[in-house]
Amino acid sequence: GARQGHGIRVRGHQVIRALLDRLRHAARRRRGDADAATGRMGEDLAHRFLQRQGYTIVARNYRPASGAGEIDLVAWDGSVLVFVEVKTRADEEYGAPERAVDAEKREHLLRAARSYAHHARVGMERTRFDIVSVVPGRPPRLRLIRDAFRISQPL
């Protein structure tokens, strides 16, 4: 059911998910790599954010057998298969998180995307590359950049 909390209508399952995310994030930080923990937290936030935008998430952290690249999230947006790169930064002191998706990163994403599309039997013309930029905080700031780059762009 829903309840009122701090003037915001909150659903119980949303509170539980947020709490579990915080616990997972804290456990990752205790185990060591703070950057990896922040990245995973960003992926968790982006996953739910995209679901609220109507995307259907079908894979997380897809890595082809060749090891060439990794795709953070794979989702359907209507009839389009979307490969999503999630970029999380503690702040924007050194620029927006999405600026980290350079030509080399796009090349790795493209290789992994071709592998996924091939195995899913989806033509690359029915795919798209999106970026979700995440800056944690209270509340976290998430920005969706649809069609962030195209295959035809020089790599």
Provide structural commentary.
With 155 residues, the chain is an alpha+beta fold. Helices cover 37% and strands 32% of the residues. The protein has 3 helices and 7 strands. The chain has helices at 12-31, 34-52, 103-120, and strands at residues 2-5, 8-11, 56-62, 71-77, 80-88, 127-135, 141-149. The strands form 2 sheets. A 5-stranded mixed sheet has the order 3-4-5-6-7, with helices on both faces. A hairpin with a 2-residue loop joins strand 1 and strand 2. Mean pLDDT is 82; it is low at 1-10.
Protein topology:
Layout: E1 2-5, E2 8-11, H1 12-31, H2 34-52, E3 56-62, E4 71-77, E5 80-88, H3 103-120, E6 127-135, E7 141-149
H/E element order? EEHHEEEHEE
How would you sum up the global shape?
globular
Q: Report the span from N to C terminus.
A: 49 Å
How do the strands line up in the largest sheet?
Answer: 3-4-5-6-7
Residue ranges: pLDDT <50 for 5 or more in a row? 1-10
The secondary structure category is: alpha+beta
Q: Strand-residue fraction? A: 25-35%
Average pLDDT level:
82
Question: Which percent bin holds the helix content?
Answer: 25-40%
Rg over C-alpha atoms, rounded to the nearest angstrom? 16 Å
Number of helices: 3
The counted number of beta strands is: 7
Q: For the report, how would you describe the main beta sheet? A: 5 strands, mixed
